[in-house]
Design a protein that fits this description.
Pfam families: CLN3. Belongs to the battenin family. It is found in: Late endosome; Lysosome membrane. The chain is mainly α and 437 residues long. The chain has a single domain, classed as Growth Hormone, Chain: A, CATH 1.20.1250. The chain has 15 helices and no strands. α10 packs antiparallel against α13, α10 runs parallel beside α14 and α10 packs parallel to α15. The longest helix is centred in the first third of the chain and has 38 residues. The protein is globular, with a radius of gyration of 23 Å. The N terminus is likely disordered.
């Protein structure tokens, strides 16, 4: 934005010149277009990940599903702990919360695996519509569910919405200045914080989980409004920074030629080119896979077992606080790209794996004296995960050519999803093993 400030300063210094009024209006229009796009991508990130985060925050409640004839909520907001095994010192559900994680991530994994080979043939607008409809359907289905199985089907809808939306909007960033990546990333971090905090706050305030979920139906509508009404049509430009957003005044996205028409988009790449680009992304993909494997193994495999009986919080409330603090860390670090940038993301992967090892030992040997230590570790875990995400995609945007950038963004989306899927697959048997000790 320095160049924008300099331009505005130069115009302000030339008050006496007749040409000043003629230049000031276009500059304001260009600046307005950039900020509309920045806010549009922030809202898209917020809305896209919101349902996914809410389902993970509600995971413990979904698996404590106890509906009685007089109970109009699909879950008990403050369930009475029922040990999985009377001989186990853990307070366990019969099924690990990793089951909800897998329902929330496997459809996303499938979408992301197939997307680089054909999703570019589908226009962006239908993809966004499907994403919004699935998000709304997930809230409705889980809210009115009367069984764990039906609730998990609602979680699957949330996964389809989030996965399709992420791959769509990250690909869309290749048609805009690179700066929008940081706004998108900050929005996804905001989704984590607001999603977890809203579920925690509304249920703590006494609202039933059913009404809590139904109150969130405005989020899918906001997603559609952000895409169709707020984003402007991308001009043909080198997406190198904010200054490129000021090359021309732009109109709302629906009124102009869609981004699919860009001449150097990924639709013209051969399979050999795609494979070559994918191999060049592995130094970015592998660290991000490790980061997400470690943090979601913690979140959905260990948090449920880190139950402190010496606090006033119930087991379900402790789980919700873990999720909220993790998302707070993610939001802070995903919004940090303008403050600092990290090129070597493998260091973040190493630190996250150390977190996993420490908390695994804490579960096994039960040596942590206070839940507040876990709260601090959880916040730190979120900071590492969010920093890995935003810096990975920013580094990819810097290092790939215009021709390959859309495909690179699409292909790299598999990183976090693959790590999360692997963590869920490992956390399920670990949960059963520990609860049967």
């Amino acid at each position: 934005m320095d160049c924008c400030a300099d331009s505005w300063r130069r115009l302000s210094d030339s008050e006496g010149e007749e040409t000043a009024p003629e230049h000031r209006s276009p500059l304001l229009g260009h600046r307005g277009a950039f900020w509309k796009n920045a806010m549009g991508f922030w809202l898209l990130g917020l809305c896209n990940n919101f349902s996914y985060v809410v389902m993970l925050s509600a995971a413990h409640d979904i698996l404590k599903h106890q509906r009685t004839p007089g109970n109009h909520s699909h879950v008990d907001p403050s369930p009475t702990p029922v040990p999985h095994n009377g001989s186990s010192h853990f307070d366990c559900n019969s099924v690990s919360t990793a089951a909800v994680l897998l329902a929330d991530i496997l459809p996303t994994l499938l979408i992301k695996l197939l997307a680089p080979f054909g999703l570019h043939l589908v226009p962006y607008s239908p993809r966004v519509l499907i994403s919004g409809v699935c998000a709304a359907g997930s809230f409705i289905l889980v809210a009115f569910s009367q069984s764990v199985g039906t609730s998990l089907c609602g979680v699957v809808l949330a996964s389809i919405s989030s996965g399709l939306g992420e791959i769509t909007f990250l690909s869309l960033t290749s048609f805009y200045p690179r700066a929008v990546i940081s706004w998108w990333s900050s929005g996804t971090g905001g989704a984590g914080l607001l999603g977890a905090l809203s579920y925690l706050g509304l249920t703590q305030a006494g609202l039933s989980p059913q009404h809590t979920l139904l109150s969130m139906l405005g989020i899918p509508a906001l997603l559609l409004a952000s895409y169709f009404l707020l984003l402007t049509s991308p001009a043909a430009q080198d997406p190198g920074g904010e200054e490129e957003a000021e090359t021309a005044a732009q109109q709302p996205l629906m009124s102009n030629e869609p981004p699919e028409s860009k001449a150097d988009s990924s639709s013209g790449l051969s399979l050999q080119e795609r494979w070559t680009v994918f191999k060049s992304l592995l130094p970015h993909i592998i660290p991000l896979v490790l980061v997400y494997f470690a943090e979601y193994f913690i979140n959905q495999g260990l948090f449920e077992l880190l139950f402190f009986r010496n606090t006033s919080l119930t087991h379900a409330e402790q789980y919700r606080w873990y999720q909220m603090l993790y998302q707070a860390g993610v939001f802070a670090s995903r919004s940090s790209l303008r403050c600092y940038r990290i090129r070597y993301t493998w260091a973040l992967a190493l630190l996250q794996c150390l977190n996993l090892g420490f908390l695994m030992a804490a579960v096994w040997f039960n040596f942590l004296p206070s839940i507040y230590l876990v709260f601090l570790i959880t916040l730190y875990e979120g900071l590492l995960g969010g920093a890995a995400y935003v810096n990975t995609f920013h580094n990819i945007a810097l290092e790939t050519s215009d021709k390959h950038r859309e495909f690179a963004m699409t292909a790299a989306c598999i990183s976090d999803t693959l790590g999360i899927s692997l963590s869920g697959a490992v956390a399920l048997p670990l949960h059963d093993f520990l609860c049967r000790l």
